[in-house]
Amino acid sequence: MKNEAHFSIDYKWIMLALIWLLYFASFMIFSCIPPLVTPIAHDLALTYSQIGSILGTVMLAYIPFAIPVGLLIDRVGTRRTILAGAALVSLSGLLQSFSTNFETLFLYVFIFGLGMQFISVGSPKIVASWFSGKERGVASGIYITGASIGGSTALAITNTLIMPLVGTWRNTLSLYGAFGFAIAFVWLLLGRDKMHAQTGGAASGALLEAITKLVRDKYVWIVVIIGFSTAFFAGHGFGRWLPKLLELKGMTSAEAGFLASVPGWSGLIGSVVLPGLRKAGSRKPIVFATLLIQGICILITGIAVGLPLTVSLVFYGISSAAVAPLLIVILMDLPQVGPKYMGAAAGILFSLGGVGGFIGPFMVGFLIDLTESILPSIIVLTIAVETMLIFTLLMKEKP
User: What is the pTM of this model?
Assistant: First the structure.
C-alpha cells in the first residue's frame, strides 16, 4: 500500500510528460500544412475557400464525435483510448502525403481530427485524475506547451529545413507522420490509467444523465461559449491562416513560417505561468485580461508591419495560449464536473468548439476569395474575441 501511494505520486509526472509528447508530435503534424499551403494549393489546384475548409477540417470531426469520445474515455479509461487517437493522428500524416485532390486531402485531415479528439479530450481527464488543487492549473499549462512547441517547431522548420531536406511537401508530411507513430509507441510502453480513478464505474445511463445535467448548467455553457469564440473560432481562424497572412504582406514562405512560429514560443509563458497564478475561484480576471489582449493583437497583426507586427505576435501568443488551459481548469473545478465527468465535460466543450474551429478557417478563406483581402476576416475575428468579455463577466467560478 505504501509503495502504491509512492508510485502514484511519482508517476503523475511521467503521465504529464507523456501527454506533452503526444501533443508535441500531434501538433507538428497539425501545423505543417499551413506553411505548405502554397505548394499544396498549386499541386492540387485549390481555391482559398477550399484551403480554408481543409484547415478547419480537423475541428469538423469534433462536432459529432467529441461527446461520445468523452463518454468512452470516462468508461474505458485513457490508456487505450489515447493510444487509438495517437495511431489515427499519425496515420493521417502519412495518408495526407498521398492526397490527389481536395476530397482526398479533406478526408485524410478529417482522420486527424478523429484521432486528435481522443488526445485533447483525454488529456484533461488525465490531469483531473492525477492532479488536484493548484497543481491542476500548473499541469494543464504544462501539457499545453507541447502543442505550442510542436506547432511552432513545425512552422519554423518545415520550409527552412524539412522541405529542403526531403524534397517535397509529400515527403514532409510522411516524415511527420512517422515521428507521430514513434511517440505513440512510447505511450504504448509507458501510458497507464490512474489507480482507483473514477473511471468505468458508472453505467451508460448514469453517464448520459451526467451529460444532460452538464448541458443544462448555465455556467458550463458560459465556459463553452467563450471557448467556442476564442480558442476555436478565432484561434483556429487566425492561427491556421497566419503563415499565408504573412506571405500576403510580402514575406517569403520561409520568413512567414518562421515569424508565424513566434506566438507558439511566446505562448509558453501564457500556458505555463498564467493558469497557475491564481487558485480555484479567482481566475476570472486573468481570463478577462487575456481575451482583451488577444483581440487587440489579432487586429494589430492584420494591419501592422515591422516591429509592431512582431510585438503583437509575441503578446498574441502569451494571451491566446492561456485561454484554453484556463477554461479547462475552470471547467474541471466545477463541482458538477470534477475528475469523474471531466471526459464528458471536455467532450461538450470540444464538440461545440469544433463548430467554431471549422467555421473560423473557412470564413477567412471565403472572405479572401470574396474581397481579395484578409482584413475583413481579421475584423470579424477581433469582434468575436472581444464580445466574449461580456460573457467572462457572467462567468461564475466555483472552488
Answer: 0.76
Q: How far apart are CA 89 and CA 313, in angstroms?
A: 28
- Write the DSSP string, 204-241: HHHHHHHHHHHHT-HHHHHHHHHHIIIIIIIHHHHHTT
2-195+202-394, what's its fold? Growth Hormone; Chain: A; (1.20.1250)
Residues 350-369, mean pLDDT to the nearest whole number: 89
What would the grid cell of residue 321 be?
Answer: 495560449
Residue 149, Cβ neighbours under 10 Å: how many? 21
23-65: pLDDT as tens digits: 999 999 999 999 998 899 999 999 988 998 898 888 888 888 8
Q: What is the pLDDT of residues 56-88, one digit of tens each?
A: 888 888 888 887 887 788 788 889 999 999 999
Which residues contact residue 377 at a Cβ distance below 8 angstroms, ignoring those fewer than 6 apart?
237, 241, 363, 364, 367, 368
* Residue 281 confidence (pLDDT): 59
Burial 276-310 (b: 16+ CB within 10 A, else e): bbbebeebbebbeebbbbbbbbbbbbbebeeeebe
- From the list 224, 327, 219, 353, the residue with the least C-alpha distance to 270 is 327
Identify the weakest region by mean pLDDT among 50-54, 163-167, 209-213, 379-383: 209-213
> What's the chain's average pLDDT?
86
Nearest to 22 by CA among 81, 65, 62: 81
What are the residue ranges spanned by the domains of the chain? Answer: 2-195+202-394
3-state helix, strand, coil in the chain (%, to 5): 85, 0, 15
User: Cell for 121?
Assistant: 479530450
CB neighbours of 26 closer than 8 A, spacing ≥ 6?
A: 86, 89, 116, 119, 147, 150, 180
Q: How far apart are CA 124 and CA 316, in angstroms?
A: 24
Instruction: Give the separation between CA 283 and CA 286, rounded to whole angstroms.
Output: 5
- Give the C-alpha separation, 80 to 164, whole Å: 37
Nearest to 325 by CA among 19, 7, 6: 19
Q: How far apart are CA 378 and CA 397, in angstroms?
A: 31
